[in-house]
Amino acid sequence: MKTLMKFTPTSKSKRILGIDPGVATTGFGVIDYAKGDTMWVDHGIITTKAHLPLADRLKQINDELTALCRTYQPYTAGVEKIFFAKNTKTAIDVAHARGVILLTLKQLGIYTHEFTPIQIKMTLTGYGQADKHQIQMMSKATLRLAEFPHPDDAADALAIAICTAQHLHAFESKI
Prior knowledge:
The protein is an alpha/beta fold. The chain has helices at 54-72, 88-107, 117-125, 132-142, 152-166, 168-172; strands at residues 14-20, 25-34, 37-47, 76-80, 111-115.
């Protein structure tokens, strides 16, 4: 992933991790933020195999998230909240993944804020019913990326990281 303009991290920039939880696929996005400016650092997904027992899949999420946090040393993290699910089993599985993610971040001493999809959409576009394409366009523009981030779970995680950065002032008053 290439950015269009250079951002130079300073001692005052803060690394932010965004996470889009899921058992099969957990998206992550890492950005640097300083004085209202953001820079893409990395994004990707943690994937688990469907044939594994749930406990093994959750442990894999824990292990890979721990490794990501040790690599990138985030100042803070944002995690998407569960808002509605037509499929109860999927919602329960996502809740398991969210629990592991929140616990992992807490154990690593990373202060975490949670956002609903509507809060993320409002922050990025000013419209709580924005579609996925609008969110991707704003993420691409905000991070000055040459192309849209992929896959979707990672793109969503970058949006969560941007949302976290935009709320950082209020966020820091709670730390």
